[in-house]
Amino acid sequence: MNLPIFTIIVPCYNEEEVLEVTIDQLTAKLSELIKQNLVSEKSKVLFVDDGSKDRTWHLIYKASLNNEMVKGLKLSRNAGHQNALLAGLFSAKEASDCMVTIDADLQDDIHAINEMVKKYNEGYEVIYGVRSSRESDTFFKRFTAEGFYKLMDKLGVKLVFNHADFRLMSKRAVDELEHFAESNMFLRGIVPLIGFNSTSVCYERRERLAGETKYPLKKMLAFAFDGITSFSVTPIRFVMLIGCLSFFVSLLFGLYFLTLKLFGNTELGWTSLITSIWLIGGLQLIALGLVGEYIGKIYKETKRRPKYIVDVDLFNLPVSRKLINMEGADYEPISETRKLSENN
Ligand code: UDP
Ligand code: MG
Q1: DSSP class of 10
Q2: 43-81, pLDDT tens digit by residue?
Q3: Closest residue (by CA) to atom 3 of ligand 1?
């Protein structure tokens, strides 16, 4: 049997605190898989530096010199987690039969990879890593994350419950992923649309090894909002429904105030009148904002901007230039990133 060439893809943004441990653990895991005859000796671990401002690229580059298994891909600037994953997948796919994506902080259990590769060898093409418990997460993170999955389900978006971006995909699935031309790629929503033979593997999610989360509340909310508006038009329908309801309610109020007026008690109505002006005004603004949000999305999509730009690709030498999404990430001049990583 031909063993599959396997690539582990790791997005890294300012991960200098954990990276050395991560490199050690993942290369050890890959050696173990090779030894167990589960994957080919040509398998690699590909670290994608998503425009880090610290020593992340320096560490990746150094490791790639010392260890054949370690490869690096440096994006020209911070393109965001999802784009970093895409950059890694698209760069690795030509030379790989299957790929696993996993976060650099090793919150996801690397031992689940064995099970994933076994399932791949059994013929599955997409294997989702699913958290069996969220004990290591704070109450807030658990509450918001699980609420998000439930809300998405209600809105008709089919997500795999408690699955994030720890998954194995075959080359064929990644090839299909490339056909999704939208610039806002919410992978958790898109991968299930690819279909093929899929299954999941359970694991326990741990705490971050070191460093802090790169998803503060602001980014988390933006990510959830993007996920919802990229996949569902239900919010816009909901707003219309509220609009109709409030129109109906204001009719009732109108009747009520008219009756009061007939009995000569007009000043009574002032409070309710001013309240309803604010209420309707508010509702209209929400509705306008939501419509604007969707129009904004259409505007962004029509531009067809590159999703990312690769600066250095140690995986596919000679250096190739490939494109990635500029939206949704803080802008930072390229020259500054270069200077920083060269100084280190
Ligand atoms: N990450 C990235 N680009 C970003 C933000 C995050 O590549 O702009 C990476 C980060 O280095 C990590 C993964 O995405 O490997 C998930 O981030 P994190 O662990 O901070 O998120 P959390 O687990 O707290 O949701
Ligand atoms: Mg994490």
Answers
A1: E
A2: 999 999 999 999 999 999 999 999 999 999 999 999 999
A3: 81
